[in-house]
């Protein structure tokens, strides 16, 4: 381990801090920096003499910082006294020396401009952070004032004895409460009726499979014991084969697909659901169909 590594805590591979391109500021202090400068408690009290350095008393106030703009820095860059065309007429060594000096000046100018852009971005970020902090502080002050006003508006014992603990509703508030209760009651009744209608519709769709007459019973017995026996055996064999095979997940997928289709289309086992019937009775479905046909004809 070399001696230079000890400066960084015995850790190698750590680069030193980059040297700043501008030794002095390139702009005057903005409002945020001036506020921070005023907020810092520094200096000497009145009547207390300031110390001397080189026989001169230190100023009580911090003098404004000196700055050099980028334009002034660029003006002080020393370029060669001739252009690139004139350099081509010089001897090789002298020409190369002048060109190196010229390109050094150009690179320095470019570095100044790039550093100026970087510092401007940093200033914008600092400004945005400062604005967010001010917004948070304002919100905190508003919440604190609201809390203090709530505490100040708490009822006292005298006020409770005089006006009562509960405020009576105004006639407008009573009427509004009455209408809200009526709306809630009717909404509940409508929901119950829709549930009953949904169940009745499911029963209606299922009624097609019910046996209600002797003829239907005889036909069902005949089909069960005479016609469908062979179909049942083959279907049972195919179902068992599919269940015990590796691709048994298709059954679940098929059931889920049917459920999703019913949920999207508002159907009940592939048959019209309550919402579709309501659309037909109200004329919404026919209106939508006409509008779609009209739009299609206009596009054509």
Structural features:
65% helix, two-stranded antiparallel ribbon, PET123, mainly alpha, elongated, 300 residues, single chain, mS26_fungi
Q: Give the helices and strands as they follow along the chain.
A: HEEHHHHHHHEEHH
- Shape estimate: elongated
- Give the strand order of the largest sheet, numbering strands 1, 2, ... along the chain: 1-2
Catalogue the unreliable spans. Answer: none
* Total of helices: 10
Instruction: State the helicity in percent bands.
Output: 55-70%
Ends distance = 83 Å
SS content category: mainly alpha
Range of strand content: under 5%
- Characterize the largest beta sheet: strand count, sense, and whether it forms a barrel: 2 strands, antiparallel
The number of E-state strands comes to 4
Return the average pLDDT rounded to an integer. Answer: 78
Radius of gyration: 45 Å
What's this, in brief?
This is PET123. It is built from 10 helices and 4 strands, in the order αββαααααααββαα. With 300 residues, the protein is an all-alpha fold.
């Amino acid at each position: 381990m070399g001696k230079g590594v000890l400066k960084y805590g015995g850790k190698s591979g750590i680069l030193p801090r980059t040297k700043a391109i501008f030794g002095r500021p390139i702009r005057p202090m903005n409002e945020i920096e001036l506020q921070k400068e005023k907020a810092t408690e520094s200096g000497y009290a009145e009547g207390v003499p300031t110390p001397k350095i080189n026989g001169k008393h230190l100023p009580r106030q911090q003098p404004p910082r000196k700055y050099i703009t980028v334009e002034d820095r660029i003006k002080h860059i020393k370029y060669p006294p001739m252009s690139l065309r004139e350099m081509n007429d010089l001897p090789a060594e002298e020409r190369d020396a002048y060109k190196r000096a010229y390109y050094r000046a150009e690179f320095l100018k470019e570095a100044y401009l790039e550093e100026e852009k970087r510092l401007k971005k940093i200033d914008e970020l600092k400004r945005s952070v400062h604005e967010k902090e001010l917004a948070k502080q304002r919100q905190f002050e508003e919440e604190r004032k609201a809390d203090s006003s709530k505490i100040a508006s708490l009822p006292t014992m005298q006020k409770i004895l005089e006006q009562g603990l509960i405020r009576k509703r105004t006639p407008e508030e009573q009427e509004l409460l009455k209408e809200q209760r009526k709306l809630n009651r009717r909404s509940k009744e409508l929901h119950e009726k829709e549930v009953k209608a949904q169940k009745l519709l499911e029963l209606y769709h299922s009624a097609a499979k019910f046996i209600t007459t002797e003829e239907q019973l005889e036909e069902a017995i005949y089909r069960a014991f005479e016609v469908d026996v062979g179909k049942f055996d083959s279907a049972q064999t195919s179902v068992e084969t599919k269940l015990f095979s590796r691709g048994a997940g298709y059954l679940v997928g098929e059931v889920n697909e049917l459920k999703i289709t019913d949920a999207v289309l508002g159907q009940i086992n592939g048959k019209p659901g309550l919402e579709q019937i309501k659309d037909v009775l109200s004329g919404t479905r026919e209106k939508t169909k006409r509008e779609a046909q009209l739009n299609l004809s206009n596009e054509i």
